[in-house]
Amino acid sequence: MRIDPKEFHVHNLRYIIRSAAEDDAKTFSEVRLQIDGETEYLDREQGEAFIDESGFKKIIKEDTESINSLLLVAEVNGRIAGFSRCAGNALKRTSHKVEFGVCILQQYWGFGIGKNLLEASVHWADSNGIKKIALNVLETNDKAIRLYKKYGFEVEGVLKKDKILSDGNYYNTILMGRFND
User: Fold this and answer.
1) How many angstroms from the chain centroid is the CA of residue 145?
2) The whole model's pTM is what?
3) What is the pLDDT of residues 91-102, one digit of tens each?
4) Which residue, 7, 35, 136, 181, has fewest beta-carbon neighbours within 10 Å?
């Protein structure tokens, strides 16, 4: 699906939250690769599960045409600074829910981009009959956990020793969900 673009001004940074377009595919691939190398909060290391331009074109097209998926970008000066995705599916038993994920280039952390992508996604879900938004978050990502709780997400479970990070230690993944009854 698509949403109307919305402009934000935070700490002298102007950005737009909008639906992804097929023209974004090449930049999407580059930005995702860069983000994967900037943080260990995500599942992938840089270069793993790489999606090229044609792969992103397919994802963007499918998400735009789907009634229960949403792919958003945060655009700064015509360049993607981050993105979020609510990935739904057509299976009858799980078509009421979406999986949420968000990625922001590190240089744009602290400008409310993640919060505004989340807020737009929650509004879209609530307005389109989505009953559950599910997400996974690394236990050490306290800022994200606080934000998710602020928007009504609750802890549903913990996957123990789910990730091994560069320090050689294992970390838990927290499963969270937001319900729209």
Assistant:
1) 14
2) 0.95
3) 999 999 999 999
4) 181
User: Is 68 part of any domain?
Assistant: yes
In a domain, residue 168? The reply is: no
Q: Is 62 helix (H, G, I), strand (E, B) or coil?
A: helix
Q: Write the CATH number for 100.
A: 3.40.630.30
Q: What is the pLDDT of residue 49?
A: 87
3-state secondary structure of 132: strand
How many domains would you assign to the chain?
Answer: 1
C-alpha torsion angle, residues 76, 124, 90, 96 (rounded to 10): 140
Counting every residue, how long is the chain?
A: 181
Task: Output the CA–CA distances (angstroms, integers) from residue 137 to 80, 143, 153, 173, in the order listed.
Answer: 23, 10, 12, 6
47: domain range?
Answer: 6-131
CA separation for the pair 85, 126 (Å, rounded): 15
